[in-house]
Amino acid sequence: GVEKKRVTSAELLVSPAMVLALDEISTGLDAAATFDIIRSCKNICNVLKTTTVVSLLQPPPDVLQLFDDVVVLGQGGTLVYHGPVSDAKRYFTQELGFQCPAHIDFGDFLVDVCTDDSSLYFRDEAGRPGKPPSCVEMAERFKRSACYHQYIMPRFQQAAAQGFDPHENRVLQAPFNQPFGASYPALFLLCLKRHLLWVVKDPIVLRQRIGQSTIQSVMLGTIFWRTEEDSLKVALLFVFVAIVAMGNMMTMDIIQAKRAVFYKQRDASFFPTIVYTLAELVADLPLQILESLIIGCIVYFFVGFHTDVFGTFFVALLLSIMMFVNLFKAIAAHTATGSAAQGTAMGIMALSFCFSGFLIARTLIPDWFIWLYWITPFSWVLRLYAVNEFGSPGPDGRYDALVRGTQRLGDVYLEAFGVQTETYWVGYGFLYMAFVLVGSFALYTLGMHYRRLGVPRPMVVINKRKTFRRSRVPTAMQQKSALVVDQDESVFAAAMKTLVSVSVPPPAVTIALRSIRYTVTIPSKDYKGPPCCRPRGTDRTLLDGISAVFHPGSMTALMGSSGAGKTTLMDVIAGRKTMGRAEGDILVNGHKQDLHSFARVSGYVEQTDIHVPTETVMEALRFSAYHRLPSNMPRREKDLVIESIVDLIELRDILHKAIGQPAGENSAGTGLSVEQRKRVTIGVEMVSNPSVLFLDEPTSGLDSRSARVVMRAVKRIAESGRTVICTIHQPSYEIFAMFDNLLLLKKGGRTVFNGGLGPQKLSELTQEPYNTAMDLVRYFESCHPSVPRFVEGRNPAEYMLECIGAGTGAAKAEQPVVDFAGAYMSSKMHNDTLLALSHGAPGELLSFPSYYATSIPSQLLMSAARWTRTYWRNVGYNFVRLLIIIAVALLFSLNVVSERLQDVSTQAGLQSYNGAIFSGVFFTSAIQAVMTVGVIGDSKQVYYKELAARMYHSWPYLFGLSMAEIPWLLVVTFFHCLIFYPIAHLWTDTDYVVHYVFSTFCFSAMFCFMGQMISALLPTTRAATLLTSALIGILNLYSGFFMPESSIPWPWKLLYYISPARFGLKATMPRQFYCDFSCFSSWDNSVDCQSTSVSSLADVGGSGPGCSLITDRSGALVQKMGEEWVMANIGRPPPYRVTVWDYFAATTEADAGDVWDYTWGMVGFMAAFKVITLLALLFLRHIDR
Question: Which range (33-37, 426-430, 779-783) has the least confidence?
Fold first, then answer.
């Protein structure tokens, strides 16, 4: 993180900009590194004459002195001071009456005078405490001050004098009078180079796309290997188009992953949007050509299409891939979340499937929907491929053979599926794809240019049962502390009293480290062979023989330069490491550490703020406290502990706000600010009232006042008998003085100092003792004569970091070469530590009667309640999928609204009904799989953190997720059946309706649980999305809809047997075509249909939706069952009249008697997916730590 922070700053500093704005660039950096970076900024500013504005949190005094001016903003955005840094102290002390104590950093003082703590620094003319001026009053006094008229007004006059004269005003001169820093061709080449690097350096996407293309095309090509059944080629081409389209849905995740970087750089005028998107289009072309070659060559020549038109096929394939990729890019540019993008894309795919002309014949599409046939991509691409193939002479010229003396056989195949036969449709298809490609590219470019997604407003959750009737937001009265506060004590003191006086106090814990060593293996970067033969690599030592003792009632600072191993040591102590090798002994109260019991008494505030985004602050605190506080502690007392922590770290004003998503590499932050989120992270751990509290950089991202409030609360908690270990980068003098001990590391994980920070001294403000750290100063000064002397009034934390050579760049070269680690090993401090380790007597053994603090039933209830709240608030997931489900149900049912299956009399009508029902149930289920991937994937980091804290078992986590998902699946099923079933005129008998509803629910739930399983198995949401999209295409192929079992060759038949989609379709579809009478003599209740004049066997006693008679004019029955079988069962020459059920059952190998077997098979799949998901959550840890 530190290196990324510096790269972010360098990215701006290398630009020729005249104005540089750097926001909180010191967050996560140690004081020495911050000083080096700010000094570099100052040098650049002086040399290039730029205007540099920097916002800093907790700036060290020597860093503050590097600035020329300082701007102090008060509450409400008031300007309290703007002038030279050198004059600021005089202004605030002499003109405003404040006093800055010696142990308070001046930067912290400037922040404090604008807060409620300003009264601590204010003295009236007689030197007595008084009421300080408010921020508004200070702002008015500054406007009347000499500083304002001496320093600020002349700058306005100077700017006005320069005006818009390009000879006087440098900003109006080149290159600043140009919109971008380089020409369009140069920017295009730069963007193109970077996009190509992205393609090459993203091995997951590269391997996924190439591997997916190869596997899917081999599957498709071998299933239809050199097929002689030319009528199947149209179905093959439809599946081929579907696989090509859905295989590129991964594009949306890639675009949304890069979107935040684009926003930042485009808004900084790095490049014009059209250059960025055009370079991306060109950079994607080589991989798209490779993908087209792989898919095209394998499928085309495996199946045996006509070779003379392969060139047209390849160009059409390349253009269709480009079209679908840019269509998905446009969706990603206009949708805020990944789930919304996936849902929208699946809706468009469903629309394209529906109106492709294959599932529902073009001639049977209602007039009010026919326009959709002409605008959806599938119909044009499928028509182009089909006309290109069947309009050619074909293999051995058989497509040119005349049927009935006048019509080409190729045209007969096209007309059977409602496809136009004229060859000019190939050219029109190219024009259409080019038009959609250009249009999608324009939509993508406009979306990236004008839209800024991912930054919604903060969400406030209102509990209507507990708020006033006329109030929608908690008032100040409602935000008061819930603790009982005595008249002579503060809320802070009351909170501390509550924590100390709990009925079940945490045990005192002493932690001893003996020769801790931690190493990781760095793989060889030069190796280019297969992964299985990769050499072991080299070992790197991150911690080298660290020994220390941490006592209860003390607060230890763990410090060092960036990369010294501070967080690594805390992870090793807390048992949070998932990789590397740790050696040495960790003793807890003199006993060997047991991680299970240790996790019960410890809290770990991580450097990154990991929370459930949709939870409110109070919900997060309660979830942690109810899981981790002892089970024998009353609920009322647990609530008081929560209220105490709320008051200690000042969370009351944000209790009802949703935490939101933190800003990351690929997304903008939402919800709480960085400072608020950090306090919530600390609060979530502190509500567990732990014996040991680990804090990893708790003040990073906080201003000086918030940092002081948090650390003061931590100090009080330590004084109550807790053991506190805290890494900290750049503490102010005041915060550093709160620590009792210091463990200082240098790079390589070697100890430099391990001792107390005394002696103590009374504070001028609070009259409380604080540690001066003079023992630390005297130790370093005694190490070597070349060590710089300490200057009175300087922060000892900055001094010791300077001594050990922390920082960046040339600053390190100026430091004396002193082996501080060697000096420590021979020091009295080290010997005292070893003596304490050898003479420490064993104390209380930590043991608990149960593995978790909360019972399993309680875990189940709290997990279910949490997931239910999350689902309700996740609008991008649940409400979007409901809208898509409703749209899919309407589209496919309205296509057959003017028909009734009981009245179907043609093969085309039956094919339309078959396609409508297949599409309705399959897409309803497939959408669940695609959209649910992010549910586990996006919450996995929270799960890992809470599991490490032993908050709950894995299966209550999964149980809660399932309990929250099932009601929404019921709602999905309800809306689908409510719309689709009556509009499509499906059979209305009660047992039919009940079975359809239940099987559709099982189908949707099965696919939903499959998506969650994939997300649990794979390391990232992105990888899971890529696999799920590809898997849906494969399941579609092996569902039995496009090819029955007998037509699938081995070994692919195994995939057909285990395909969940097969079970779903076999359960939901056959009964909707069933008739208990048959025209086949070998079947039950046979009737001679050839001699009867009725149009349906329902007229002669048959029952069921599939009793109407149709004529097989395409010879499908003979091709499927054989001429001998057909003649034996019908006994008359063609054309044959059979029932809808006869035709459907014979051609699809369906059986209405085993639908319940397949339904319970789906239940088995659901259980299996849940078991695999649980095992993945139990044993897989997709986190390198």
Answer: 33-37
